[in-house]
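Hi everyone, sorry if this is the wrong subforum. Our group has a chain we'd like a structural model of before ordering constructs, and none of us has done structure prediction before. Sequence below.
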Amino acid sequence: MFDHISVRMSGRSAGRYVAVNYDSTWNTVDVTFDTHQVTLSVLDAAALSDAITTALDTYSSNLRVVR
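Answer:
Right subforum, don't worry. Here is the predicted structure as tokens:
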């Protein structure tokens, strides 16, 4: 098995830098937006992800095509 796992995803959204990093040493998730960073426990990060997904699902279910 692995002693240490680190996963990093980064990119740009609307011209702004966005990154999500996981580190098994500390079992934390760092979320970075431009120069702002927050460190969350894995459980808090999962809860945040679920809340964002639910909000986006709710928002998109109310969208209608207007001609």
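For your construct planning: Strands lie at 6-13, 16-23, 28-33, 36-41. The chain has a mean pLDDT of 90.
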